[in-house]
Structure formats: structure tokens, C-alpha cells
Design goal:
The protein has 251 residues and is of the alpha+beta class. The chain has a single domain, classed as L-fuculose-1-phosphate Aldolase (3-Layer(aba) Sandwich), CATH 3.40.225.10. It is built from 9 helices and 7 strands. The longest helix has 21 residues.
Amino acid sequence: MDIPSLKSSVSAQEWQLRVELAAAYRLVALYGWSDLVFTHISARIAGPEHHFLINPYGLMFDEITASSLIKVDAQCNKLSDSPFPVNPAGFTIHSCIHEARADVVCVLHTHSRDGVAVSAQKAGVLPISQQSTFVIPQLGYHDYEGVALRDEEKPRLQASLGRNNLLMLRNHGLLAVGGSVAEAFLNMYVFETTCQIQISAQSGGELVHVHPEIMKSMPQVLQMVTKGQGAGIAWPALLRKVERSDPGYKL
């Protein structure tokens, strides 16, 4: 796709956000979580206008660049020129979360095979891996109401997420949020890995659950594991990974 660069026509802050969001799209493709053109990642642009960036509906995740991302307002009006539309279901899910959570910069949603498989299980995420112990304390659940096209579902989506950073959309997929693109991506990485492990483990023998007392201390343990840096401990290395694969995401 030959899309003109927006670097000189947006603020330095918005350009940096565009580059990081484009990197997240490329990483989702690299890790195999994409679903052709049908899922989405959004990022809030700083400011009182409640504008955010989302993918052009019709591009594969490994095609998305910083300049191809579409800026929209709270009513899904396109504020940047693009030959592509915006995914209406993507806008419903993302706009309501950005509306309810001022602390959230990035919302990441996937339809991965293992994520959808676990979302269809009545018990949801099981405490059977170290990864799951990081997921469960910050996980909400939302029952399936069909393709997310109706505004009336928004309050229920907001309530299901609450103050959590992870949401399992029953029979649908996974959702992660974060105060930065890096944080949302790392949250989703652990969420996706948890689901992959669970599906693999269920194909074997009897499962061993992590003791409930261990679960109680996991938020503090996570801070120690990342040396207090949170997602910052891994994000620079992930950007280098994208750079090695295809530096064109920065265009």
C-alpha cells in the first residue's frame, strides 16, 4: 500500500503513538494472534478531544504502518484521510472502553484459536500455570451478545471490564488494556500464553491447580519480576524484534 507519510503533519506525540501502535499490530501478526483483518487495536491520543487511532478495515496486520492508522472521534467520524473504513464492531468495543476508563491508552482485542477456545469453556481461565496466576487477579468476563454492533451493549461491556486490565469475551476472544501500547501488549501476551498452555494441558492427564494462597500475592510478585518497570522491561526488545522483521511499520 502506498500511503503518504503523516510524520510532518501530526504532532511529535501523536507520531510516536502511531509508531508504537503500528509496531503492536506487526507483533500481533508475528505471534500469530491476528484473524485476517477482523480484530483491532486502538490507542487514545492525549488531549481533551477523546480522539483515538484504530486500524484501517481491510489491511492485514503485517501491512499496517504508522501513517495508515485512522484517527477517529468518539462518534467514529474519520479525522484523517483514508481510503479504508473503520470496523464497526471494533469501534463499538473500543470506544466504550476508552469512554469508561480514562487510565487506558491502548485496547487490544484478539480472536486467536486458543483464546476463543478457552472463552468457550464454562470455567474460563484455570489456575494451572504460572502465567495464569498473573491473569486471574485482573480478569473479567463478558457474556456473548452477538457481534458487537449495538450501542446498548456498551454499558455491559464497561461493567464487565470494570477496573480489570483483562476481559474474556465469552465465545468470542480476548481483550487487554493498558496505560500504554507496551502495557496492553504485554498484558495480552501473558493472556494469550495462558490460554495456549491451558488448551495444551487439557489434552493430557489430570490437572494440578495452583494453591489459592499463592494467587493472593501475585500483583506484588509481578512488580518484582519486572523490576518495577512493568511492560518497559520487554517493550524495547519487542521493538527491536519488529525492526529486524520489517522496519516499514514506521512509515
